[in-house]
Design brief:
- The protein has 218 residues and is an alpha+beta fold.
- The protein folds into two domains: 65 residues, no CATH class; 92 residues, Aldehyde Oxidoreductase, domain 3.
- Helix content is 11%, strand content 21%.
- A three-stranded antiparallel sheet has the order 1-5-3, with helices on one face. The chain has a three-stranded antiparallel sheet with strand order 4-2-6.
- The chain is globular, with a radius of gyration of 22 Å.
């Protein structure tokens, strides 16, 4: 969006409709569709999950929560040289909620519309906890990290906004709101999972191709 126009190697196939996206690696058999149910609190615990209405919804095959999810391995340790999405991250392993929008259930149905409808019928009761959501109230806890991603040096400074604003010759005071979904990606967020015997082959959309390594599932 900003800077000089660059020629992308994948540009021609995308703008001509010849690019194959994750969802389009379809198999011969009819697929099932999964829709993620996300947390509506910022921090706390799941107290109760009511799946009765969702399970009776047409086309529903399975609903996975922390109560019936398969056992998973441990989460990979943080590393400044590896992006967080390239690390193993177990999901639906316990009733804890660490952030708003965290996955708390997966509804699987015969069609996308059936999965979406059933996901809206999942009823979850929470025990909300107080979180640290005010940056300035917690400014005293701020610190300068030794390094950022890929070992880049950190540089942090806090200025005096109001002093600078009051002395500025030109002032602009306007409120902007950003949408949850970015407006420009051509590929929809999707993941296609294909069973191959004891293995599972995944086709996933990604933002940074060279940072999406292939590793064996654990």
């Amino acid at each position: 969006m900003i800077g000089q126009p660059l020629s992308r190697v994948d540009g021609p196939v995308k703008v001509t409709g010849r690019a194959t996206y994750a969802y389009e690696y379809r198999q011969d058999e009819a697929p099932l569709y999964g829709v993620i149910v996300t947390a509506t609190i910022g921090r706390g615990d799941i107290r109760e999950i009511d799946l009765s209405q969702a399970q009776r919804s047409p086309g529903v095959c399975e609903i996975v929560t922390h109560e019936n999810a398969p056992a998973q391995g441990a989460r990979d340790a943080p590393s400044p040289s590896v992006l967080s999405y390239a690390r193993a991250r177990p999901t639906l392993t316990n009733p804890k909620v660490g952030h708003y929008g965290e996955a708390v259930a997966l509804v699987v149905a015969e069609t996308l519309e059936q999965a979406q409808a059933a996901a809206n019928l999942v009823r979850i009761a929470y025990v909300a906890e107080t979180g640290d959501f005010d940056f300035m109230a917690n400014a005293g806890k701020a610190y300068t990290p030794k390094a950022l991603l890929f070992g880049m040096p950190s540089d942090s400074a806090v200025g005096h906004f109001y002093a600078g604003y009051d002395s500025a010759p030109i002032k602009i005071d306007h409120e902007y709101n950003t949408p949850y979904w970015f407006s420009q990606p051509m590929e929809p967020n999707a993941c296609l999972a294909v069973p191959r015997g004891e293995d599972l082959e995944l086709y996933v959309s990604t933002q940074i191709v060279d940072r999406a390594p292939v590793w064996p599932a654990r």
